[in-house]
Recover the amino acids of this structure.
């Protein structure tokens, strides 16, 4: 047999083997992959697996996707494949408890009509008369229905959480009960829970966290003057419990001692508690208290919130633009902080996988000796934080001065804590009734029946929308994009306390951008130097302008509005100084980014220029060695 025939047969055999390999792998290993992402974002989490394995009735998931309309939208097509593959993972892991149906809702078809009935959203596409459907409808055997109206590619980092939450809501018939009590209008003005909205556009809107809670729990809003907390409440949540009556504090005390779970948000200075302005007395609003605390209860439980201090931290400061007060430029506002993962307690399930929590004018907690409860910080400031008297914020808040006068400390201050242990009542004899006599409620508890379970957070504003969520209008629908893990912390806390912790590990996998720590450190150092020098130069500039203004209105001894020679020369010198100061100010502003630009250039060189240079150099050396070898061979 000739060599040519063998070569041809080998080539044909290789082609056949290659095609066979592709057919087999495409059919049997279609979804196989190796997940090399840092957080295993493409692998079902343990929480998802636990919820799937606990299913006791079959669920049907219908993925509606308009294939024909999406032909000209490659990014949507790619994301649809990602969603379908992840849903297939759920179906495979469920051992038959999840049935997945892929539906193409063609225009004017029964499928399109059903998609609308399920609440899915048809999005108009430019250049196409037919809408694009890309949503999910889930149902159980008891007529339960949940849906994702439209899959937003921008929310890919929370895709697994959204899918698992939908399955959890369909499978969980027994929802936990959460009672919310607040001195703020977190529930909106005259909120109608049946319609899910306020009756008019003029009233206060519900805070976004309330809508998130209602998706997962039975939420009850309790009055501020409540005399007894219902035992049916699984978790009691206090938001800015401001100046509560003793009878209400007594009710909370008894609820906790009987085994009730409590989450309390208090604040030394709440940005959300905005007092009404009195035109006749402008100072009245500034004098009004914006703090909340429960010192009697906290002390009985073994801790206290420092009444007068706000935690400032330059290391984790959030950039804020205060308009004219900061020259219409964002600066590091040391009273508002974005706490990174290394300042969250990695040993607690509530915070172990969270990435970022934002707080504003937060306080801190400290231990009261002699009570014996276990005091566990959940998240804290950095060890460079300093304390600022809340009166500075209340009466003369100057963001620039706070930054330039900042003096880094050496202590870390606990902002959120988890407290457990046996305690005694803060009201052992009860509270005074209308007749002025001390009275106890029926079944008064003097000591806790079991170890209390209390979470306390020294910041209320972290629940306000602007510190954790961005709401965007999407063809008439409000879409929420989380900007921090604030809501995840809250729901993790409720889940942990109520024993429904299946979603904790999934919720905590929300993705966030990973900042360049070295760049951020350079920004902080440069800005500190820049702001200090800027204040000095602006002070000189202001004094120079005032001197020029005084000189221009000064008159000679005869009363004429004419300047003498010395005065003119002095004004000319002052103007020269003014121009030099302005130039120095521009130079300082220019220097703000010099170190960052240098680092950027170095990174570009190493990432873009250095590798090709090394490859080219190796190619030249390899070529030279080959030529040298051939030349040496010829000479021999």
């Amino acid at each position: 047999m000739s060599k040519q025939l063998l070569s041809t047969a080998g080539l044909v055999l290789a082609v056949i083997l290659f095609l066979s390999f592709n057919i087999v792998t495409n059919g049997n290993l279609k979804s196989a992959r190796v997940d090399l992402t840092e957080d295993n974002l493409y692998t079902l989490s343990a929480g998802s697996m636990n919820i799937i394995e606990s299913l006791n009735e079959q669920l049907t998931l219908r993925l509606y996707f308009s294939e024909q309309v999406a032909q000209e939208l490659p990014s949507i097509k790619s994301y649809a494949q990602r969603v379908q593959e992840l849903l297939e993972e759920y179906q495979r892991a469920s051992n038959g408890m999840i049935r997945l149906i892929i539906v193409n809702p063609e225009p004017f078809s029964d499928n399109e009509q059903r998609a609308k009935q399920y609440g899915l959203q048809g999005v108009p596409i430019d250049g196409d008369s037919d809408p694009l459907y890309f949503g999910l409808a889930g149902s159980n055997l008891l007529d339960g229905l949940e849906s994702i109206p439209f899959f937003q590619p921008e929310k890919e980092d929370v895709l697994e959480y959204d899918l698992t939450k939908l399955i959890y809501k369909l499978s969980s018939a027994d929802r936990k009960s959460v009672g919310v009590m607040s001195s703020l209008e977190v529930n909106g003005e005259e909120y109608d829970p049946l319609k899910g909205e306020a009756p008019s556009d003029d009233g206060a809107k519900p805070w976004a966290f309330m809508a998130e809670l209602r998706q997962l729990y039975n939420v009850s809003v309790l009055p501020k003057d409540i005399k007894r907390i219902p035992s049916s409440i699984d978790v009691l949540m206090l938001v800015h419990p401001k100046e509560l009556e003793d009878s209400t504090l007594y009710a909370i005390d008894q609820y906790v001692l009987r085994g009730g779970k409590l989450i309390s948000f208090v604040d030394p200075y709440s940005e959300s508690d905005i007092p009404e302005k009195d035109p006749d007395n402008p100072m009245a609003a500034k004098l009004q208290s914006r703090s909340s605390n429960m010192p009697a209860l906290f002390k009985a439980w073994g801790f206290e919130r420092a009444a007068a201090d706000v935690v400032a931290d330059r290391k984790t400061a959030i950039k804020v633009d205060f308009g004219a007060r900061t020259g219409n430029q964002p600066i590091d506002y040391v009273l508002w902080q974005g706490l990174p993962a290394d300042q969250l307690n990695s040993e607690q399930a509530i915070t172990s996988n969270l990435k970022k929590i934002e707080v504003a004018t937060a306080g801190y907690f400290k231990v009261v000796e002699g009570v014996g409860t276990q005091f566990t910080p959940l998240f804290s400031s950095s060890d460079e934080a300093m304390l600022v008297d809340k009166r500075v914020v209340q009466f003369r808040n100057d963001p620039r001065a706070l930054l330039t006068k900042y003096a880094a400390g050496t202590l870390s201050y606990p902002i959120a804590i988890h407290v457990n242990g046996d305690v005694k009542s803060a009201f052992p004899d009860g509270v005074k009734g209308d007749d002025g006599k001390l009275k106890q409620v029926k079944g008064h508890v003097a000591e806790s029946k079991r170890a209390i379970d209390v979470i306390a957070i020294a910041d209320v504003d972290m629940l306000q929308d602007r510190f954790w969520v961005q709401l965007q209008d999407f063809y008439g629908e409000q879409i929420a994009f989380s900007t921090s893990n604030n809501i995840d912390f809250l729901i993790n806390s409720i889940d942990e306390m109520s024993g429904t912790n299946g979603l904790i590990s999934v919720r905590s996998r929300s993705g966030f951008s990973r900042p360049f720590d070295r760049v951020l450190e350079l920004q902080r150092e440069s800005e500190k130097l820049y702001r200090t020098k800027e204040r000095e130069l602006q002070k000189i500039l202001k004094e120079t302008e005032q001197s020029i203004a005084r000189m221009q209105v000064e008159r000679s001894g005869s009363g004429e509005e004419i300047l003498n020679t010395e005065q003119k020369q002095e004004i000319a010198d002052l103007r020269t100084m003014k121009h030099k100061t302005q130039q120095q100010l521009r130079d300082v502003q220019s220097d703000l980014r010099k170190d960052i630009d240098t680092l950027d250039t170095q990174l570009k060189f190493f990432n873009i220029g250095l590798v090709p240079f090394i490859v080219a150099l190796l190619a030249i050396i390899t070529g030279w060695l080959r030529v040298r070898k051939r030349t040496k061979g010829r000479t021999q």
The first strand starts at residue 59 and ends at 65. The first helix runs from residue 3 to 28.
